Amino acid sequence: MLNHAGHPVRRAKLRHYLMCPPTYFDVAYSINPWMDPSGHMDHALAVRQWSGLVDAYRSTGHRVDLLEPLPGLPDMVFAANGATVVDGRTLPAKFANPEREAEAAIHAAWHQRNGILYGGGAAQPAVAVNEAEGDFAVLSRSILAGYGFRTTPEAHRELATLTGREVISLELVDPRLFHLDLALAVLDDERDHIAYYPDAFSKGSRRLLAGLFPDALIASELDAYAFGLNTVSDGLHVFIPAGARQLREGLAAAGYWPISVDLSELIKGGGGVKCCTQEIRPARNTRATSVGLAPLLPDERVERPAPFRLRASEEDSSFQRDVREEHHIRRAGASS
Q1: Which CATH superfamily does the domain covering 13-286 fall into?
Q2: Among residues 111, 156, 179, 193, which one is catalytic?
Q3: E-assigned strand segments in the chain
Q4: Considering 156, 193, 237, 275, which one is annotated as catalytic?
Q5: Quick check: pTM over 0.70?
Q6: Residue 179 is a catalytic residue
Q7: pLDDT in tens, 186-207
Q8: Mean pLDDT confidence for 143-168
Q9: Per-domain residue ranges for the chain?
Q10: Active-site residue flag, 111
């Protein structure tokens, strides 16, 4: 089914996320080009911004479980790097930098304890260096995998063996976009619709992406460097860092509902929306549930809802402001 603009009607699917509060978040060292230990970081603001993201997920129906943060591990807030879960099978991370090595065992232990929630089995330690969803993007039947700065090609083969899925390797060449989730975003993991920034990839990988995804949204350098591709999508709602205005417009034109989230303090650590969000994809016998439909016609009557209630967000945060501006939900029963 297509909407008035010729795009597929977008459907949201309930998701299960694992996140870690930024209780001990700090820019205490530099392991990527965004980190400057001499710069100012407002910890209280970082906590409020992260809480706003959690509330955005929960307000749109998604489950968020929390991993307990530990002192001495300031990057635990970037939970996407801790493990990859596909069809209930878990590959824990094996970090490239010693500053984050201890996080892998913490994630593995959580999945060992909680795998029953999603049909998971034992989480075996990783052999090759991989930074989990930082470099793995899961599609309907295959997985896109980045290499060049952190995750190794050997880890791609390890993930393919674990999941039984085709893993497509993509070479990253821009040091500022050192993870795949800074250069590419999965927007619809059922129709395999993506967005990406071509210059983040080698020439061969650009050709591969263009051939596999001719309908992809192409991000600009400005949007990529604003962490615009470090997004999370449920198939309809796209939770996107506040600075990526051009990409946000492209998403809306393609039938998605962009929800801007201000994570400016966490970006100082090199992570945005996706970096904070590990998705737990259950075993295949678990039914997914649709939670919404995008509007079909531009002239349908819509009603602006009251702003979502956020527990700890700024008074005029980008999330609240853009929900009021963009997230128009049809009044229940208006079309019946």
Answers
A1: L-arginine/glycine Amidinotransferase; Chain A (3.75.10.10)
A2: 179
A3: 11-13, 16-19, 63-66, 83-86, 89-92, 136-138, 142-147, 166-171, 184-188, 193-196, 217-218, 232-233, 237-241, 257-261, 278-279, 290-293
A4: 275
A5: yes
A6: yes
A7: 999 999 999 999 999 999 999 9
A8: 98
A9: 13-286
A10: no
